[in-house]
Write a structure and sequence with these properties.
The protein is of the alpha/beta class. The protein is built from 5 helices and 7 strands.
């Protein structure tokens, strides 16, 4: 079983992308939880309390921005990395202003994403110590 600080929730309505991210994260030793909608993400987050959330901006049942706001209400400290094909400055700014810790654009560069995940988890561990 993975150590508790290694659990990630991947939220994306696109199953092939979710599987690609899951596979890459599992290769790095993370336990990966999955959700394909915002409502499912909130349920999984409440039940499992993952250490980091990778959250798509555009979800089948609404906006990842709304999900991020809700996550921040219930968990103000766990890192949230938003993902999107949208690279306009306003999207990045809104994500960061509502509580996301980072924003990456698709297509994803998996090595870069892995480095960002590790950096955010390292920072979160240091802040909780």
């Amino acid at each position: 079983m993975s150590e508790p600080s290694r659990q990630i929730l991947v939220v994306d309505g696109d199953a092939p992308i979710r599987r690609e991210i899951k596979s890459a994260c599992e290769q790095d030793g993370y336990q990966v939880l999955e959700a394909d909608t915002g409502s499912e993400a909130l349920r999984v987050h409440t039940a499992a309390h993952p250490n980091l959330v990778l959250l798509e901006v555009t979800l089948p049942d609404g906006s990842g921005f709304d999900v991020c706001r809700e996550l921040r209400r219930s968990d103000p400290t766990s890192p949230v990395i938003m993902m999107s094909t949208r690279s306009d400055e306003i999207d990045v700014v809104v994500a960061l202003e509502i509580g996301a810790d980072d924003y990456v654009t698709k297509p994803l560069r998996l090595r870069e994403l892995a480095a960002r995940i590790a950096a955010h988890l390292r920072r979160a561990r240091m802040e909780s110590a």
